[in-house]
Specification:
16 helices; elongated; Rossmann fold; 5-stranded mixed sheet; binds adenosine monophosphate; single chain; alpha+beta; 8-stranded mixed sheet; about 425 residues
Length: about 425
């Protein structure tokens, strides 16, 4: 039997209401902050991600789905969205139309990671990107948007973590200090961390190996060594979060995996999803647009993992989704009336009523059971003596009340059912 590829997941009809609820919050909340939706292709030229995210990152180094198409061009299924948004922003000169562009998206992403709970190879993210301003108001705004979407879904066990990496030069300075500090301890580091020492030293902070963390306890602290401008911006972000009543922790180890981050970084963590506990992450990337060939344009953004968020909702039992309530179930008292039932159903469906009837030649009793199972608000009986005199019996399932309506009196039934 052919099965779905490891690390991919079907989203079954029973799960769709949760997805739709989440997507509707994403739409309304981003729109209320004047972010505009953007959709970009599923695949891009590989060099976009290699240049944008950084050759030495885990994503580019070992996780991308990269292949040559028939013309030999190396293409990659998008592992994250920021590089694609920035590519589209540059390609369509969006910065020339208006100085500040705010985008949001919902899209599948692809990373060849080791699958485990909360970690897939095709997963979905929503996120926002604001391009064109260095104002820390936008950093705070994006944290607030992410937080608002998560709390709208009823999530409560959330921790907001923030940090600042400083401008490029102060981050580079710090990296040098960190390398100096680790130089004579390098031999004690785990294999991965030893590799990162040369390629991406900040990422050693992400190590899950206890002895690595022990060594890092004495390491110089990034926040003590960053530039004044970044410090001031960070203070403002903190003030806004305090005024917005969003509690947060400062996590000096929050360096994030990608190369392009500068200044503010943040993550929102759930206490309810196990070890893969980051629901969302983001930060400022003031150099990325220039790095990808555009004119210098500051930016800030975040991405949130939809599967993980829905898992958190399930574990917190935070989403109460109403059962589907079908408006009308048509019951045939005589199997010969199938075509008539189809015709009547069609009339009401044209009016966007949610209508169903039996296609399986089931008994009247079985049809009634089905109507109950579907939570039908009204049941319409076709057949019997009433039908011979051109009438149908309509039953309100909540009150038990019944009334006769003329076969062709569609509008009357519609009025009754719509209330
Ligand atoms: P990142 O783009 O790595 O900062 O990830 C942002 C968010 O996407 C994370 O906080 C997760 O919620 C989600 N995410 C990242 N990688 C995966 C994955 N392999 N499977 C499921 N969700 C993921």
């Amino acid at each position: 039997m052919i099965k779905a590829i490891t690390g991919t997941k079907d989203i079954l009809p029973s799960e769709i209401p949760g997805w739709k609820r989440l997507e509707s919050f994403v739409n309304t909340i981003f729109t209320s902050f004047n972010y505009k939706e953007i959709r970009t292709p599923i695949f891009e030229e590989t060099s976009l991600f290699a240049r944008g995210i950084g050759e030495e990152t885990d994503i580019v180094g070992k996780e991308m789905y990269t292949f040559a198409d028939r013309s030999g061009t190396s293409v990659t299924l998008k592992p994250e969205m920021t590089a694609s948004v920035v590519r589209a922003f540059i390609e369509h000169s969006l910065g020339k139309r208006q100085p500040l562009n705010k985008f949001f998206y919902i899209s599948p992403m692809f990373r060849q990671e080791r699958p485990q709970a909360g970690r897939l190879r095709q997963f979905h993210q929503f996120g926002g990107e604001a391009l064109g301003s260095t104002s820390p108001l936008l950093d705070a705004e994006l944290i607030i948007i992410a937080f608002q979407i998560l709390t709208s879904l009823g999530l409560r066990d959330l921790t907001v973590k923030i940090n600042t990496l400083g401008v490029h030069s102060s981050r580079e300075n710090y990296k040098r200090m960190l390398r100096d500090f680790l130089k004579d301890k390098k031999y004690m580091l785990s294999d991965d961390s030893r590799k990162r020492y040369d390629t991406n030293v900040l990422r050693i902070f992400d190590s899950k190996v206890e002895s690595d963390q022990e060594i890092l306890k004495e390491a110089p602290i990034l926040i003590d060594h960053i530039d004044e401008e970044s410090k001031n911006d960070f203070e403002l972000v903190k003030d806004i979060l305090i005024n917005s009543k969003i509690s947060f922790e400062i996590d000096p180890k929050l360096v994030r995996g990608l190369d392009y981050y500068t200044k503010t970084t943040f993550e929102i963590i759930s206490g309810k999803v196990g070890s893969q506990n980051a629901l969302c992450g983001g930060g400022r990337y003031d150099l990325l647009v220039e790095q990808l060939g555009g004119s210098p344009t500051p930016g800030v953004g975040f991405a949130a993992g939809i599967e993980r968020i829905l898992l958190a909702c399930e574990n917190e039992k935070s989403l109460s989704l109403p059962d589907d309530n079908i408006d009308l179930y048509i019951i045939k008292l005589d199997e010969d009336l199938s075509s008539k039932a189809f015709e009547v159903a069609l009339e009401y469906r044209k009016e966007n009523l949610f209508v169903e009837f039996d296609y399986l030649s089931r008994s009247v009793k079985a049809q009634m059971r089905e109507a109950n199972k579907l939570n039908a608000r009204f049941v319409l009986f076709i057949g019997g003596d009433e039908y011979k005199s051109g009438k149908l019996n309509l039953k309100n399932m909540a009150t038990g009340e019944q009334q006769l309506i003329d076969l062709n009196e569609y509008s009357k039934l519609i009025d009754l059912v719509r209330v």
